[in-house]
Specification:
521 residues; alpha/beta; Rossmann fold; Helicase, Ruva Protein, domain 3; 3 domains; five-stranded parallel β-sheet
Length: 521
């Protein structure tokens, strides 16, 4: 197309259209369904033409702490104190946010955000608590491990990516994302440690950068190393509007950080036991690890390796307790969407139902507790228990089985016994498979197969011995059968063939002999 024929406003080079196409293929969340040249629309009021108000969930927030606690009880066992503390903090935070939306003048007032520090061992439900809360409220939620971040972002991730991921979790809705929840796990791993007289500051920069986010700052939706962001800037400049940054403010984003803090309990114990007015050795010996974590103060956390400014932005601190064997059993029996239910659903996908005795559930809990990974230990045990059942049973006629305590302790042995018990029905199922193969063969080649004496039983025995389906076995053993019998049929006119035991024992040799014999006629 010549320059004279180009449409007005086409930009002359077509570069913008190419960039648009690249952005569409990049599937950038905040580009979907939104014209890039109208970012200011986010600041407009929500009229009839603007679609549904994305902040409805915030404007209508009216939950009470007890209601949140009761909701969490449906999904998370134990952690009563953590549930109460989190429920109050969440209600306080979103009530404040709601009032700020209703009366923007409140934004000018100073407000200490209820950022939260969760302490406790792995697998006790720290992350799950926050996921459930975010789901209940309806706000976007992002979870990341502190160990993946670096100070510069060039080696490792930039902490500002957390906020950008929040926008993605909100399907590109920047306005909703600025009221979301960011959860940073393993924060204890970025504490700077003092060793051999020198201080390891590898995590200090990450703490400072997180501190900026937790206070209030504007984060660009495009990182400096983001090619897509640079393309967007070029498009903006082509339109003559400049490369103005798109940003999201973190003032109302709630930050929750957590960690196991293994050394902190020992540190607090040493401080308490060495104190002149501390506990006696006998009393201290009766305290558990979580008891010491609950006694940790700001100075303990600073001594642990955190910057005073960083830890000062986490005013709410709560300890999650380790899970006992009884707790793990209760998780499987009393919580919604637990891992045991997931395995039941997996088997239901194959049309198989599973019954577990109460003794079996208890044994799974005991084995899970031995893993020392909290609720995650349950999945380790259940995977080990069911892995071979999942592989074997869908290919059999078995549609129900029971799991006993013995099954948990010896899953492979119990599976073999189950299959042996059902051996007769299994043989019947394989014989039906041979019948289906015969029908399919006749349909494809127009030739009828008949099985000589003992051949059907030999095929079934071979399928069981080789642990394969009838279709797999037949296609492998009789791979040239259709082609060979077609040749014989052309020479002899026969349309029905008997597969004798001799033919079964050496299909290639017998088929060659029959083809040769038919050619002589």
């Amino acid at each position: 197309m010549s320059d004279d024929n180009k449409e007005p406003g086409s930009g002359g080079s077509g570069l913008e259209e190419q960039l648009r196409e690249m952005l569409r293929h990049a599937n950038l969340p905040f580009m979907r369904g939104q014209q890039p040249e109208a970012p200011a629309a986010q600041d407009d009021g929500h009229g009839a033409d603007d679609g549904p108000d994305p902040l409805t969930v915030i404007r209508e927030f009216n939950l009470k702490p007890r209601e949140i606690r009761d909701y969490l009880d449906r999904f998370v066992i134990k952690q009563s104190e953590a549930k109460k503390v989190l429920s109050v903090a969440i209600c306080d935070h979103y009530n404040h946010v709601r009032r700020c939306i209703e009366k923007p003048e409140r934004l000018e007032r100073e407000y200490a955000k209820h950022n939260i520090l969760l302490l406790g061992p792995t697998g006790v439900g720290k992350t799950y608590l926050m996921r459930c809360i975010a789901r209940l409220i309806g706000v976007p939620f992002v979870k990341a491990d502190a160990t993946k971040f670096s100070e510069t972002g060039y080696v490792g991730h930039d902490v500002e990516d957390l906020v950008r991921d929040l926008v993605k979790a909100a399907d590109g809705d920047v306005e909703l994302a600025q009221y979301g929840i960011v959860y940073v796990d393993e924060v204890d791993k970025i504490a700077s440690q003092t060793t051999s007289g020198s201080k390891d500051v590898s995590g200090r920069g990450v703490q400072i950068n997180l501190l900026k986010l937790m206070e209030e700052t504007d984060v660009s939706l495009f990182s400096q190393t983001d090619l897509i962001g640079q393309m967007q800037a070029v498009m903006d400049m082509q339109r003559g509007g400049g490369a103005g940054k798109r940003t999201i403010n973190t003032r109302h984003i709630l930050f929750i950080v957590s960690g196991a803090f293994d050394r902190l309990a020992e540190q607090v114990r040493d401080r308490i036991e060495s104190s002149p007015i501390g506990f006696s050795s006998a009393a201290a010996g009766q305290r558990e690890k979580e008891d010491y974590l609950a006694l940790a103060g700001t100075k303990d956390l600073i001594d642990y390796g955190f910057e005073p400014e960083f830890i000062g932005r986490l005013p709410i601190r709560v300890v999650c307790n380790p899970l006992s064997c009884d707790d793990l059993e209760s998780i499987m029996l009393n919580t919604e969407g637990n891992v045991l239910e997931q395995y039941h659903e997996d088997f239901e996908g194959y049309g198989i139902s599973v019954d577990m005795t109460r003794e079996a559930v208890r044994r799974v809990a005991e084995r899970g507790h031995e893993e020392q990974t909290g609720a995650r230990g349950l999945m380790t045990v259940l995977e080990r228990l069911f892995r071979h059942f999942k592989f074997e049973l869908p290919s059999t006629i078995i549609r129900h089985f029971e799991v006993s305590r013995e099954t948990v302790d010896n899953p492979d042995g119990e599976l073999v016994a189950l299959l042996q018990t059902k051996e007769s029905p299994r043989r019947e199922e394989l014989e039906k498979g041979v019948g289906l193969y015969t029908e399919a063969f006749e349909k494809e080649y127009g030739l009828k197969l008949q099985w000589g004496k003992g051949v059907l039983a030999a095929i079934v025995d071979a399928c069981i011995a080789e642990d394969v389906s009838v279709q797999t076995y037949m296609s492998r053993r009789f791979h040239d059968l259709g082609y060979g019998l077609k040749l014989i049929s052309r020479g002899s006119g026969k349309t029905a063939f008997t597969i004798t035991k001799k033919f079964f024992d050496d299909p290639s040799a017998e088929l060659s002999r029959r083809i040769a014999a038919s050619c002589k006629k």
